[in-house]
Amino acid sequence: MFGSITAIGMGLAVIGAGIGIGQIGGKAMEAIARQPEAVGDIRANMILMAALVEGAALIAIVTSFLSNSAQ
Amino acid sequence: MRQYILTLICAFVLSPFAFSQDHNEEQQEHETTTTEEHQEAGCGDHEKEAFNPGATAFHHISDQNIYNIGPWSIPLPCILYNAAQGWSLFSSGKFHIGEHGNGHTAVDHYILVEGVVRRVTDASFPMGEVEIGQHPVFEKVKQEDGKLKEIAFVCYSDQLYPSDAKSTADGGLFGGGVTSFYDFSLTKNVVTMMLMFAFLAWMFISVAKAYKTRDGMAPKGMQSFIEPIFLFIQNEVAKPFLGNKWEKYLPFLMAQFFFILGLNLFGQIPFFGGSNVTGNIAVTMVLAVITFFVVNLSSNKNYWEHILWMPGVPAWVKTILTPVEVLGLFIKPVTLTLRLFANITAGHMVIVIFVGLIFLFGKSGESVGASYGTAAGSTLLTMFMMAIELLVAFIQAFVFAILTASYIGAATEEAHH
Fold first, then answer.
1. Residue-number span of the structural domain to which B7 is assigned
2. Do A54 and B339 lie within an 8 Å CB cutoff?
3. Which of B7, B74, B196, B401 could serve as a FRET partner for B305 with CA atoms 20 to 30 Å apart?
């Protein structure tokens, strides 16, 4: 036994979320560097967007869990 | 400062020793009991299973019928229902809680396994209070459909009796097996929520009073702790997302934010209950369902028009858009549920697994050197994780509030054509 295919699905979901949140964080940093006075607005929107990206990844993770237990 | 450092070092040096001693004792105890009972049939000796960090983590984050403060187990009231027996109401102290939350006594077919009430279904099992002595045993049993299922067995008069799974709100219909009883008890999570409710009510009433009596003066004490957080949510969450209706929804947002924040932070306190309330999917689901109802009951015509028949797009696009939008209606509360649940649960599990590494590499106390080495690493990692979790506690409460505000804002937005 080397684990289950669920682990691959969860790993892929996490890669997707990682790319998405990385993009958001990087772009937010750039935006703050360009316009330091807008830091409050940018931070709030950054967290909101990161939460939405995370939501998509969570659905993938839970679906992979469910498909594993339904076998 | 030096005192703190000394205490930390002492705790660090002594902890693997204490753990290893505990486990050695347990093993010796186990050996003596098994040699005594070895000859008798029925409850033969059960091999002590290897330490399983995953299972230990799940046991530690689950809801329980006892409240643990440090080494003490505080019994909580049990309210149980079974169709044949009717209602049973007693304190979980009647189970004579032993170590790891395992009860030594069965009460009217009910037993306590790892802090959770289960029921022995077998009709030949006696009613009333019965000594079951030995710890419940977990065994994988093949079900009729060929699946392996872990069932807790209890030993009584040299016979193993199987017990039901934990009681769930759905009665086990969505997995976990249909149970013969329902558990309406005041569990650890329920008690923690009541305590948090009382604490928040006391805090906010006293702060509100202080604003009346100290009108025009600088905030003092608890006021100065609450004010910046309150204003942050009001100015960063409520006002930008809710427009001119922010005052109407502010109490709801604040109640939600502070309830989640309080429970997140309460769950971080080590050795004090270890209640993982916001890491319980039922609790987060109820919070998300409340949001779902508030959003949809305060929605206007414009919102439903954009969901069901998006204006300004070609008809063939509408056939794709409408199902997606309707699905999105239900996906929103689902992601709210899962986000809070997964973030808090993951943080708690990582901490338990870091501590579990000490037992894994130290082979439950056999190799003391490895325990010390791992303890050094995992203490630092655990402290780092707890710092991260503190941040996550705030971020998740904030995210829940900001998403609720944005959903309400989208539902109440006036048409601007």
1. 1-48
2. yes
3. B401
Indicate the number of domains in chain B.
3
Report pLDDT for B403: 92
Averaged pLDDT, groups of 10, chain B, 417 residues long: 49 43 39 38 55 75 82 85 83 80 81 82 78 73 68 77 73 62 86 93 91 82 88 90 89 93 90 82 92 92 86 86 90 90 86 85 78 88 89 91 92 77
Q: How far apart are CA B214 and CA B191, in angstroms?
A: 34
Inter-chain touch A44–B240, beta carbons under 8 Å: yes
Residue in B339, B343, B392 to test binding to A, most A beta-carbons within 10 Å: B339
pLDDT for B43 equals 61
The pLDDT score that the predictor gives to residue B96 is: 80
Taking residue B42's Cβ as centre, other Cβ atoms within 10 Å add up to 11
ipTM score for this prediction: 0.74
pLDDT of residue B111: 83
* CA-CA-CA-CA torsion sign (B386, B391, B395, B398): positive
pLDDT at residue number B407: 93
Print the SS3 string covering B78-95: EEEEECCCEEEEEEHHHH
Does residue B227 sit within a domain? yes
Domain check: are B154 and B32 in the same one? no
Cβ contacts of A3 on chain B, cutoff 8 Å: none
Domain assignment present for residue B60? The answer is: no
Q: What angle do CA B21, B22, B23 make, to 5 degrees?
A: 95
CA distance B372 to chain A (A): 30
Instruction: Tell which of B186, B216, B247 closes a domain.
Output: B186
pLDDT at B172: 54
Using a CB-CB cut-off of 8 Å, the residues of chain B touching A51 are: 339, 399, 402-403
A48 contact B CB<8A: yes
Residues 3-42 of chain A with CB under 8 A from chain B are: 40
Question: How many C-beta neighbours within 10 Å does residue B34 have?
Answer: 16
State whether residue A54 sits within 8 Å of chain B by CB: yes
Nearest by CB to B335, from A40, A58, A69: name it: A58
B248 and B385 part of one domain: yes
Q: Tell me: do B269 and B380 sit in the same domain.
A: yes
Tokens encoding B230: 């309150």
